[in-house]
Structure formats: C-alpha cells, structure tokens
Amino acid sequence: MTLHLKMDDRDDRYRLDDMVQGLVGTPTDRPEGKLKVSGKASYAMDVLPDDVCHGVLVRATITHGKLRDLDTEAVRALPGIRTVITGKRMLRNPAQGMAGKAPVQGSDDIAYFGQPVALVVADTLEQARHGALALRLTLEAKGDAVVNPHDPDASVEMPKKEQVLIGDLDEAMKKAAFSVDQHYTTPGHSSAAMEPHASVAHWHGDSVTLRGSYQMLAYNKAELADALGISEKNVRILAPYVGGGFGAKLGISPEAVAAALASKELGVPVAVSMTRQQVFETTMRRSETNQRIRLAADENGLLTGIGHEALVSNLPGEDFSEPVTQATPFLYRGENREIVHKIARIHRTCAGSVRAPGEAVGLTVLEIAMDELAEKAGIDPVELRKKNIPDQDPTDQIPFSSHALAEALDEGARRFGWDKRNPKPRSTRDGEWFVGMGMASAVRVNMLIESKARVTLSADGRAMIETDMTDIGTGTYAILGQIAGEMLGLPMEDVETRLGDTEFPPASGSGGSFGAASNGTAVLLGCEEIRRQLCKKLNCEDADMTLKGGYAIVGNKRIALRDVLDGDTLVGEGHVQPGKAEKKVRQATYGSYFAEVGVNSVTGETRLRRMLGVFAAGRILNAKTARSQCLGGMTFGIGMALTEELIHDRRDGHMVNHDFAEYHLPVNADVPQIEVVLLEERDEWANPLQAKGIGELGICGAAGSIVNAIYNACGVRVRQLPATLDKVIDGLDEAT
Amino acid sequence: MKTTLTVNGQLRHLDADPRTTLLDALRNHLNLTGSKKGCDHGQCGACTVIVNGRRINSCLSLACMHDSDEVVTIEGIGTPEHLSALQQAFVSHDGFQCGFCTPGQICSATAMLDEVEAGWPSHVSADVTAKQDLTVEEISERMSGNLCRCSAYPNIVDAIMDVAGSAKR
User: Fold this and answer.
1) Are B2-76 and B85-164 the same fold in CATH?
2) I need a labelling partner for A247 at 20 to 30 A (CA). Which of A705, B112, B134, B165 fits?
3) Which SUPFAM superfamilies does UniProt cross-reference here (chain A) (predicted)?
4) CA Rg value for chain A
5) Alpha-carbon distance A331 to A325, whole Å?
C-alpha cells in the first residue's frame, strides 16, 4: 500500500517522461483559482461558527522585564467581555520552522517590546478590541536591555560549526591583483503576508480543532500539542487556504495557543486574528545583517580567495540565526576561504525565517561586492561570474548536480541586451534621469524533506490526493493534480486535491522551497503504487501499460479505467525521505538577474524600468505557477533594494514602522512588467521528479542587480540597503 | 444600531454595534467573507468593495454610515460558476497566488475601469483633460492601492489589459 523511497542515490528512471497525459510542465490554471477570484476560498477567519467569541491580543510595552499584574476585573466589567487569558502557556514568540515543539512560553517574563501577554475575549470583535485597549498592565522593566547588535554589552556567539577557514585569505588578499574589502548592511525585513496570523479554536471534549493560517501543519500540530500540554492525537489543524506565508507562518504562533486556551475555558469556539501591527511585532522578522566581504582575484579576474563575515541577531534562547553565508562556500571558485558567523543576543522581535533565509541577504551583498570587483578588474560583470564558476563544490569537494549558472548568465545577457550597457557610470541620460544596467547571479540550496501523501483511485475512475500539505499561493493544488493526472492518465478535472488537514498523511509542509518537490514526490510514489495494482489487474508489466484520458492501453487493447477497476477502489500511499544523495552531491538552483533603473538626478529617487530573471530549477512542474513564484521572489528583491526596512527604536528596540503605511512593500506602480525565463533542466539527484525548489530562488541576489544598476546609472555605490533616495542623493555630489 | 443597505442587489437589515466597520459587518454579520481584512487601516486594499459605484476601503468606514447605500462585494461580481470577464482573466493570467488580496483587487479593478470610462485622470496621465488610454503605466498607477505580497502585479496588469479593451467585462 505504501511505496517508500529514501533518496540515497540518483534516480534515472525519468518516470514522468514515460507518461503521455501531457500535464506536467504545462501552464495549467490553478484548479482553486475560480474560488479565489470569487471570494469563495476559505481562509482562517472565513468560516466562523455561530457561537464564536472573539479574542484580541494585548502586548507588553516594555522591552525586558516582568508582567507583575493585570487589572482583569475592570475589563471583565465591560459589556460582552467573557474572559482574559494570560499565564504560563502563552507563547513568547512563534515556534521556529520545523521545531515540532513549543517555543519559550509564559507571559510573566517579557523579552521584547510587543510580546503578547494577554488575550481579551468577548462576544463581539468590537467589545474584545475595546477590552484589549482598556486592559491595564503592571509592568516592571529591567533597565539593562540590549537592543542593538553593535552594543558592546551584547552577548555575541560564534557557533563553531558555522565557521569555515580554508587556506590563508589574508595572504591571498595581499597577493591579489584586484581585491575588494567592504562592509555592507541589510536591515530587518517582514514577511508581511497579506493574511494576518489568525486562528479559530474549538474544543470537543479533550480534543481541539484549530483553523489557522499555517505553512507546516504536521509540525504545527506537534507544537500546539506541546504548548497546551496535550497529546498530538488530540489536535487537528485545518488550513485549506493560506493567505501567504513567506516563512512567517512556519511555526505555531501566539494567537493559536491563546485561542485554544480561551476556547477551552469558555467551552465555545474562539477566533483570534492578529492586527497588522501585531503581525509585525510578534511574528518573525528577518534579522538585520552586518556583513564584510573580501574578494581576492588574480590578474585574469580568477578568484583566489573569498571572505564572508556576518553578524546577525536574535532573542536569547532562539536557535535560529539568519544563515547569511549559506551559498558562499560553493558559488564561486577560490582556494582561500573564510566564513565567520556571529549572533548577537538582543531584545528585539524574534528573528526567524523570511523568504530564502540566508541567500536573500547574503547573496545580494556578495553580488554587490562582485560588481565592485568587476569594475576594479575591468572585466564585464557577466564574464567575471562565468569564469569563476567552479568545477565542483570547492569547500566540500563534492560534485555538483545539475548546474546551469553559466547558461542562465548567457541567456539573460542575450535577452536583456546587456551588450548595450556602457560600463562607465553616468554614461546614459534620459532627461533628468541617469539610466543604468546591473546584473547578479541567483543561487539557492535545494532540499528534500520527509513527506507523505495518499492517492485514491475510486471505482468511477477519478483520483483524489490527500495530504496535510499546504498551498500558500505556491501552486500546490495545481502541481499535485498535474503529477497525479500525468501518472494515472487523467485530465485535471478528474483529480481532486485535498490539502491542509492534519487528518491526512503528514507532508513536508511549505517552506524552504522544498514543498513541491518533496510532497510532489510523495504523490508520484503513491501513483506508482496504484499503477502497480492496476498492472496486477491487467496482468501486465508497468512498461507495457499506458494510461491516458481515463483509459488503460495494454498491447492493442484500450480499456476504460472504470472497467479495469470493476468496482474496486485502489489506494496508494507515497512516502519519501531524504537520504545520502544530499551528501554525495551539492544540489542548488541557479539563475541570473538583469535590471535597468533610472535614478533621478534631482531627487535621487530610483525607478526600476526593466527586469529579467532567468532560472534553472530542474523540471518545471507548472510553467505558469513557477513563473509567478519567480515574479514574487524578484519583487521581494525590489523591495529589499529600494524600500523595505524594519526600523527599531535605538532606546527600547520597539519596531517603529509596524504597518504598511511605514514599512513599504512594492506596490503595482513599483513593479514593471518583469520578464521570467525558465530554463529546461533535470536534476536526477534531487528526487524522482527531477524538480528542484523555485519559491525562493527569485529573491536570492535580486536586490543586488538593482543596486548594481544604480551604480552603473549614477556612480553611487550603496552598501547600506535599501537604496533610499537620501543615500543616493548624498552620493550624487561625490560621484560628480 | 439599525442600518439598512443593499448588498449585491439584496436589501439587508443590520443591527450591529455602532463601532462595527463596513468590512466587519459584511464578514461577521452578513456572512460575506469574500472581502478580506489585511490591515484594518486602509493600507492594503484587501477589503475593497464598491459603494454607490465607487471603490472604497470597507475597513475605513463604519457600517452605520452606509444606511441606504448600495454595496457590491466580490460575491456580487461573479460566482465560481459564472465568473465575470475580469475574474476569468485573473485566473487565466495567474493574477494572484495566495488569493487573499484578490477579491479586493478585482473589486478595485472593476470600479477602476469605470473611472477610466468616466474620464478620470491619474497621477501618471500626461493630459488630465484628455480621454485616458489604458496603458500599463495607467493600470499600475490606478491599482497601486491594492497590495499583493505574492506580487502578481505584472499578471494583474495583463489580466486587466486583456479585459479593458473589450466590452465584455
């Protein structure tokens, strides 16, 4: 019944290429699309039971200290108020991705400004909101809270396993014909998914059902159970539609536990949605980074050394730290290497995963440094990158799996008209605008995560997929349906995909770009199991059976699946686990970005004029949804380059710009008609689909291409992101 | 507080707390959950509905201010079985990913096309008195009150362009 695969080796069977339904890879519309455009897709807060009560979280307004008392009596006296929840089970911050256990709990100890310490519950949202505003807290602040990563009092950790030292970088820098040694900063970022974190909890006896907005339900179930002190068996989580996640919804969050505690106490369902300000303050931020890059190159521009140092931050006790240097060990050649990773323990909102933790900011900075090296060496930026592509992973000394960086660079340069770029800054003018082009490489590590799915082929010849996988906009409904349709010879409309329910087999969840490949593999395996059962019924070998359009074709016979099934229902479960393959080869996705900007010579404002991304991520499962994922990633890059920046008060660390009025996401007018090109590729080492992740690739390095274009346009090199007009205009005088 | 409004062509009677926003009234009292709450501060546009023919952020006004008004929500624009041309174009062009901002985008785009038809200029219109052509720049500008973190913006523009020229919307 279950087909299991541990990915220890390459899979050269190319099963999908044996199939003839013609679904995989095509730009098929999302099957749930009609529901989404008509407001019928049900997100966390869209299905409220009639007797639901509403809860509103209350936050601490000190940075570090104790909650001594709450004046619950006064609030309870207000109309409609049902209860005030606080205490040792409240979450300090969300669980980190794939934690599978509760994060730090307890509302008595406050570790950051904005920490949720209570939930006010009332009959209506209006009453609960009023109660939350009225709740008076007695807080005792400790005066010693360190809130800045550069504070000399900050405790700084340097985990041994994160540091790399190969050869002698100092010596390489001394001997280098061309070198770069620069410091760069990137600010904190917010995932800012459009659906706020929200949960509706409802108990039946000892069991709780939670309808929430979460990315990784199998882990979230364990986290919620642990937080509540109950068995996982007594927790069910539903998340059929998730209004974006981008990492912020990997782990169970404070509103879920608070809703469950309140519902248990009151015996009615309780709905809690964070306000947008709470989403900013109490869910994950991407850490700010302070980076130093050293590049040493010989007279031909060949790298002899790379140094990448990073200082990031997090709350005390959190095991996540932004893996800034993740791709640096293998992207470019160079015998001498030094990687330094430091974590400052400070009292700011918890740091965690935001789209492409690591490469999003680390590669962006490396690619700005590469642009600086290209200029110093007088080598075209595309050529510099191409000549520094290593033959194998230079740090781990293992081969690469599929690797299309050179092709992506060439294809991008050709399509964008890179040959028309004048390498001299300020050489192109359009009225009061300086115009310039920049480029950057893209790279993101590729992962496979344990995942299960069940496929049922019912007697009427229709298939159903069940898994607790989520679709957070990533296209899961589409691609799982396409894989099953392809393997079983069924059109999309004959495959139903059911997601987002922990009653279904546990999946990888959506995160780290691994969802489609991991859970898609589980579906493929489930289908292979069903094919095995069909072959048994048809008394044939799999190689002799063709499934297409609801028919089985064996030899010269064409039989409707319904007739083959003859009243039977077939069930196949797929189960994939990562294995030795990930140690044998270096797996990553690659690409290139090309950007053209205008920089206003009067105001210093940058406007993105054109942008192209070329990406290789193994087999593309759906050309339409894969392209959309890349558009989204690149737009995160636009925000990172030009506008997005979490600002913390220097005194108490509180997040100053905690909503969309102050934290500036790119809007429609900031994003030109970006072009995306997906290269044809297969990666046999990744999984039996030969597909790699694509959800994060589009952000990795994207901002670098824009910052490099600003330099080419106006001669101002911005090393403190984002490149807001104040920074650019300051440099405009110097650059003249 | 008693309020009567016409929602998607139907007369609806509401008796809600005067602090109830139009958005919360639609979602929590009238069971029309297609309109979404992304920020509750008029910053994201996910709650956009059409009131008396004009697009507004429903989170920024109280329900009781809309006595006898005509409200159109995403549910009134089309159903999964009978999508409007714009809704269908959003599906075909993948003008969304997670789908949370989508009802607001479609309500906004529907009313925006009427604004153009009525000759309203925008910030990027070269001549504010001329009839406006629906260029990419005009659409992008006019749709910038609706945030999409998945960033389907280029696809949203394509979807609107697809429908704008034809009379089928």
Assistant:
1) no
2) A705
3) CO dehydrogenase molybdoprotein N-domain-like (SSF54665), Molybdenum cofactor-binding domain (SSF56003)
4) 27
5) 11
pLDDT at A734: 75
DSSP letter assigned to residue A501: B
Q: Closest Cα to residue A436, out of A482, A383, A381, A394? A: A381
pLDDT in tens, A547-567: 999 999 999 999 999 999 999
- A623 interfaces chain B, CB cutoff of 8 Å: no
**Based on the domain organization, do A598 and A552 belong to the same domain?**
no
B90/A473 Cβ within 8 A: no
DSSP A40: -
Tell me phi and psi for residue A568, to 5 degrees. -85, 155
Q: And the tokens for A251?
A: 């782990």
Enumerate the H helices of A613-655 as residue ranges.
623-642
Choose the mutation target among A38, A642, A663 for the interface with B, i.e. most B CBs under 10 Å: A38
| CATH match for B85-164 among 1.10.10.60, 1.10.443.10, 1.10.150.120, 3.40.1380.20 | 1.10.150.120
A726 and A698 share one domain: yes
Domain count, chain A: 3
Q: How far is CA A482 from CA A176, A477, A623, A680, in A?
A: 52, 9, 12, 18
Q: How far is B34 from chain A (nearest CA, A)?
A: 4
- Do A593 and A481 lie in one domain? The reply is no
Residues A215 and A120 in one domain: yes
HSE-up (13 A, CA, CB side) for residue A607: 14
A667 close to A643: Cβ distance less than 8 angstroms? no
Inter-chain Cβ pairs, chain A and chain B, closer than 8 A: 197
Is there a catalytic annotation at residue A662?
no
**Catalytic-role residue among A157, A450, A696, A734:** A696
pLDDT tens digit sequence for B70-115:
999 999 999 999 999 999 999 999 999 999 999 999 999 999 999 9
Is A45 part of the contact surface with chain B (CB cutoff 8 Å)?
yes
Does pLDDT of B167 surpass 70?
no
Asked if A711 contacts A723 with a C-beta cutoff of 8 angstroms, the reply is no
Q: Please indicate, yes or no, whether the overall pTM of this predicted structure exceeds 0.95.
A: yes
Mapped onto helix, strand or coil, the DSSP state of residue A65 is strand
Count how many Cα atoms sit within 13 Å of the Cα of residue B99 in the half-sphere of its side chain: 29
pLDDT tens digit sequence for A691-729: 999 999 999 999 999 999 999 999 999 999 999 999 999
Q: What is the largest CA-CA distance in chain B?
A: 47
What is the sign of the dihedral through the CA atoms of A428, A430, A433 and A435? negative
Neighbours of A336 (CB within 10 A): 22
What's the whole-number mean pLDDT along residues A458-477? 98
Chain-chain contact of B154 with A674 (C-beta, under 8 angstroms): yes
Helix or strand run (H / E) with residue B139:
helix B136-142
The alpha carbon of residue B81 and the mean position of all alpha carbons in its chain are separated, in whole angstroms, by 20
CB contact under 8 A, A35 and B80: yes
At residue A278, what are phi and psi to the nearest 5 degrees? Answer: -70, -35
Residues of chain A contacting B156 with CB distance shorter than 8 Å: 668
pLDDT computed for residue A600 by the predictor? 97
Q: Is A510 helix (H, G, I), strand (E, B) or coil?
A: coil
Q: Which CATH superfamily is domain B2-76 in?
A: Beta-grasp domain (3.10.20.30)
pLDDT digits (tens, 9 = 90+) for A153-180: 999 999 999 999 999 999 999 999 999 9
Q: Does the distance separating the beta carbons of B94 and A629 come in below 8 Å? A: no
Cα gap A512→A446, rounded to integer Å: 8
Distance CA B25, CA B17 (A): 9
Distance (Å, rounded) from C-alpha B26 to C-alpha B5?
Answer: 11
CA-based torsion, A642, A644, A649, A652: positive or negative: negative
